[in-house]
Write a structure and sequence with these properties.
With 726 residues, the chain is of the alpha/beta class. 49% of the residues lie in helices and 11% in strands. It is built from 34 helices and 17 strands.
């Protein structure tokens, strides 16, 4: 009987499979032969079997170093399920009592335990090092090995101590496994684990069944997510948020809208986290709203969608998190919400960290932003990032491929780009190169005297967005290389040199343009976000008529997003109208009836079948906060004191107050305004809004910004809306 047959028999016995998947068999053979092994395999590729099966076949106990308690429990449960004896696999971590740990140690000493899961923090404890010195170790498996690298998306300093601890406990083969690693991260892992000569097994990163889409993150993001989930009713999904507060708030909003959702983050106690994870796996919960603390190693094959509420900090993190969808080969939808404001927040979080860490963080973030903004095939972009070539121009399963933009021939522009990179000696990053192309003078440009170059300003006729697209697509096409370890310095390839002498075409599509979070513009034609343009125009006409009658700007009656929602949802009575964004009791009672009558008449005349009315209910906590703000303003408590009491930034408090007055509730903030501004200034700003046909802050700042701060203008705008609209 050959060795392949020997491995198939236990594979069938323990796991019920008749054949190995991909490189699994070769990986296991390499480990059984006593060799160090490096495994780069996408989520769902079967990494855990690569160390579980050999641990059952080899003499001694395999040490599996794993970063999360939740992952350990999940893996131990899985291996116990395929064995007749629960003592075959154990974990030791902070969730166990001393008695339970002693019981685990006895099973190991008696040779019953083939797999022991440990967190790197536990491995560093002297008592465990002393204990393991006397145990026969079959091999060490380092799971989620990207945690070793500061260039990885989930860097854990404790992982850096693993090699010295292995040397102390007793040498044995090492297998390192990860689902996401660029060349830089891969080298970092092997160096730090002391397995430079390890045989590498690299599987394809392509997951053809995953659909990738990036959506603009607007004020209606919660509503969009609720609608998406209800369209996929009963299917399992994960929503990732960056902060614990966002996780809890969104989970609460989903539950208030009859969605079976639960929050999960590291700030919760371990019992609750464990129960939540089990409930999700057992399908007692449909949706998990989580920070990145959730999901590593979770073996749920039928997650049908992964939503990123916030843009992730790195493409490796994004790839691993989206990889939790469709692990069974079935449908997997990966939807990400993106706005420039989220990028700015993430960059702000980096302030105060060591300079090198900030540089790495910004470089990783810039790659994620480039992915979000690109108009090329998202699959092609992702695979290129991980060093894999995708030969097709279109995958047919991402938003950019399903809704392609026109391409233009940018051969001349690519030649300009190559010439500029060459002129600055291949020593600068993308943003610097673009400044030279566009002729933008700055301190760093003049310091290097690059404003004196002949090519300075040679690409001035194009915007930064266009040049970013050319750089990114030149990288994908192999004309440029990016030195990640040097924070993204652009280098020319031999292909670029050949291109300068050729007349080959170079087709590019311009990057997608994302508006800011508060961009309320409603577009018509093919790109409209309004379901019914005819109704929307009729509503605008009615609003204009009312504004003339009442002598107030149209936006005072209803804002554009409210009209957009009316033309999408068709509310025909005041109760339904009150659930339209920006319409509260006050506005509905004061202006609503004529709008409802118009919509009802329109539906009857045009045989409109109204959709099931989507009501996005607010949560009790949010309602209570609004009520408390109203009561505090009624008591004339200073706004900065209210913000402090509520744990809000002043900007966040103003956002809440704006929502209150725009929905139709009258607030009197004169007592606070009079402390901040003199009467003449208040009147000046007030008159601007009375005469303006827009309440846009950008327009107001253009007109008033030299004399007043954004905060002052917002405060008077609140006064104006409250008095004129409510």
């Amino acid at each position: 009987m050959d060795i392949t047959q020997n491995l198939i028999a236990p594979l069938k016995q323990y796991f019920g499979f008749d054949a190995f998947k991909g490189d699994q068999e070769a990986i296991i053979k390499n480990l059984l032969a006593g060799n160090d092994t490096f495994v780069l395999m996408p989520t769902g590729g079967g990494k855990s079997l690569c160390y579980q099966l050999p641990s059952l076949l080899m003499e001694g106990t395999a040490i599996v170093i794993s970063p999360l308690i939740a992952l350990m429990k999940n893996q131990v449960d899985a291996i116990r399920y395929v064995s007749e004896d629960d003592s075959v696999a154990h974990f030791i971590n902070s969730s166990l009592t001393k008695g339970a740990i002693d019981s685990v140690k006895n099973d190991i000493i008696n040779g019953k335990t083939k797999l022991l899961y440990l967190a790197p923090e536990s491995l560093t404890k002297e008592e465990y090092v002393d204990f393991l010195r006397n145990v026969k170790i079959s091999f060490y498996a380092v799971d989620e090995a990207h945690c070793i690298s500061e260039w990885g998306h989930d860097f854990r300093p404790e992982y850096r101590k693993i090699r010295p601890l292995i040397n102390e406990i007793g040498k044995a083969p090492v297998i390192a496994l990860t689902a996401t690693a660029t060349d830089k991260v891969r080298g970092d892992i092997k160096k730090n684990l002391g397995i430079i000569d390890a045989k590498e097994f690299k599987s394809s990163f392509n997951r053809p069944n995953l659909y990738y889409e990036v959506r603009s993150k607007t004020k209606n993001v919660d509503k969009d997510i609720i609608k998406f989930i209800k369209q996929h009713h009963g299917k399992s999904g994960i929503i990732y948020c960056l902060s614990r507060k966002s996780v809890e708030d969104l989970a609460e909003v989903l539950r208030a809208n009859d969605i079976n959702a639960r929050a999960y983050h590291a700030g919760m106690d371990s019992v609750t986290r464990s129960q939540t994870q089990d409930d999700f796996i057992m399908e007692r919960i449909d949706v998990i709203v989580a920070t990145i603390a959730f999901g590593m190693g979770i073996d749920k094959p039928d997650v049908r969608y992964v939503i990123h509420y916030d843009i992730p900090k790195s493409l490796e993190g994004y790839y691993q998190e989206t990889g939790r969808a469709g692990r069974d080969g079935g449908e997997g939808m990966c939807v990400t919400y993106y706005t420039h404001k989220d990028l700015q927040k993430l960059e702000k979080f980096m302030e105060g960290k060591p300079v090198a860490e900030q540089d790495i963080g910004r470089q990783l973030l810039s790659e994620t932003a480039a992915y979000a903004e690109t108009s090329v095939c998202r699959r092609k972009f992702l695979l290129h990032y991980f060093g894999e070539e995708y030969p097709q121009d279109s995958c047919g399963n991402c938003d950019n491929c399903l809704r392609p933009k026109n391409k233009i021939d940018a051969r001349d522009e690519l030649k300009l780009l190559i010439q500029v990179i060459d002129a600055v000696k291949e020593n600068f990053k993308t943003d610097y190169i673009i400044k030279v192309l566009m002729g933008i003078e700055s301190n760093d440009i003049t310091a290097h005297k690059h404003d004196n170059l002949d090519c300075f300003g040679c690409g001035v006729e194009y915007e930064e967005r266009f040049w970013n697209a050319v750089v990114r697509q030149a990288l994908i096409a192999g004309y440029l290389e990016k030195e990640i370890e040097n924070y993204g310095i652009l280098k020319l390839t031999p292909k670029a040199t050949r291109f300068l002498k050729s007349d080959e075409p170079f087709m590019v599509v311009e990057n997608n343009e994302f508006g800011e979070e508060d961009d309320d513009e409603v577009v018509g034609g093919d790109g409209t976000s309004v379901s019914d343009l005819a109704l929307y125009n009729a509503l605008k006409d009615l609003r204009k008529k009312k504004s003339n009658e009442l002598n107030v700007p149209p936006y005072v009656i209803f804002q554009e997003p409210s009209l957009e929602a009316m033309a999408t949802i068709y509310p025909v009575n005041l109760e339904e109208l009150k659930n339209i964004p920006g319409v509260g009791d006050g506005k509905a009672k004061r202006y609503g009836q004529e709008f409802c009558d118009l919509i009802k008449r329109y539906c009857e005349e045009n045989d409109v079948e109204r959709p099931e009315f989507l009501r996005v209910r607010t949560t009790p906590k949010k309602s209570a906060q609004k009520l408390s703000i109203i009561q505090n303003i009624d008591r004339k408590i200073a706004l900065d004191d209210i913000a402090s009491t509520k744990g809000l930034d002043f900007d966040e408090l103003l956002e809440e107050i704006e929502k209150i007055v725009y929905s139709g509730t009258k607030l009197n903030i004169d007592y606070f305004l009079e402390e901040e501004l003199d009467e003449e200034s208040i009147q000046d700003i007030y008159e601007y809004f009375r005469e303006s046909d827009t309440d846009s802050m950008d327009a107001a700042l253009d007109e008033l910004g030299e004399d007043y701060t954004e905060e002052e203008i917002r405060l008077v705008r609140i006064k104006f809306i409250s008095e004129m609209a409510n």
